[in-house]
Design a protein that fits this description.
Helix content is 82%, strand content 0%. The longest helix has 51 residues.
Amino acid sequence: MKKFLNNTIISIAGIIVGYFAISLPFHLFDQLTGMQMRMIFVAEIIIYFAIFSAFFLIKEHKENCRKKEQEYQKRRNERKQALDGIRISSFDFAA
């Protein structure tokens, strides 16, 4: 339920921001010169690219953290199994 709510909020926010980002040049079309319109267009492209890059980098970072955690758990379990094999007659020789 939490993930659904989070995705819904992100989708609604994306739609609202997208609407205003697309409608901005149309509202300013009569008031700006051609060069100013080009500058706004380039600025929008740069902003879209920056947002995409940020989300991509965050996703990659989370994936790397998850992989490191899995490797850590695997090594921990291997060490734990190796230490379990040292016990003889309820004495722990590893300690």
